Amino acid sequence: MKNDRPEAARQNRLLRSLPPADFALLAPYLVAVSLDQGQVLTEPGDFVEHVYFPHTAVISFLAVMRHGQTVETATIGRNGLVGGVSGLGRWRAFARVVVQVPGTASRIPSARFRSAFRQSDRLATLVLQSVQSIVVQIQQTAACNALHGVEQRLCRWLLLTQDLANTNVLPLTQDFLSQMLGVRRTTVTQVAFKLQALGMIQRTQRGQIEIVDRKALEQVVCECYEDLRSRHAQFVI
To answer: In this structure, are residues 79 and 166 in contact, taking their beta carbons and an 8 Å threshold?
Structure first.
């Protein structure tokens, strides 16, 4: 793969916000990559070997239980980065990092990223903001999972994913949704049928979900959506 051209890398809002001199510290080592849905970027305990700056891909952090159950705790799109904590040193991943929506990203080896991090105060500030954003997401998601029903949580998940992917048609199977939400597939199927019957979504034969009536979803979703949406919106403008 060839080095990513600056205009491609700057599809990522964090990279776009860097002054030219700071961006130049990263640019020679950024490589454009295509990411497939379900692709695992790191497992818990792995050393973080690469940093990813999503363009069109959406990437999830999953908590993994001892018997294999998973639940999503945070989501990163074109406004942030994945693996930024490696700027502070050689770190191990605390979660499974998996591609939620396929697309493109820029990737850089952690060692190269760490060198740029140490030379750029602006980059360091953005990385620390990103880490804070992830912590806030994890906290909000934990509260949402404990206090709100599956229907509200699914609406939150669909709306946030649409915001980050910037498309009404999301490639989401029932199995994938059950892993993200930490519930049984049959539960996801029942809730999805209800939302479809109400005209909010349309499920396709290709394992996709189309958001048909966003305003209706916003009427059903819990308060967590607005809190998380505001967090995404204010980070790296």
So the answer is: no
Contact between 108 and 30 (Cβ < 8 Å): yes
Please tell me the total number of residues recorded for the chain in this structure.
237
Return the beta strands (E) in the chain as ranges: 31-35, 40-42, 50-54, 58-64, 70-76, 96-101, 103-109, 169-170, 201-203, 209-211
Q: Where in the chain do CATH 1.10.10.10 domains reside?
A: 149-221
User: pTM for the complete prediction?
Assistant: 0.89
Q: Which CATH superfamily is domain 6-144 in?
A: Jelly Rolls (2.60.120.10)
CATH 2.60.120.10 region(s) of the chain? 6-144
CATH of domain 149-221: 1.10.10.10
Ordered per-residue pLDDT tens for the chain, 237 residues: 444 456 778 889 999 999 999 999 999 999 999 999 999 999 999 999 999 999 999 999 999 988 888 889 999 999 899 999 999 888 899 999 999 999 999 999 999 999 999 999 999 999 998 888 889 899 999 999 899 999 999 999 999 999 998 889 998 888 888 888 888 989 998 999 999 999 999 987 677 899 999 999 999 999 999 988 876 665 544
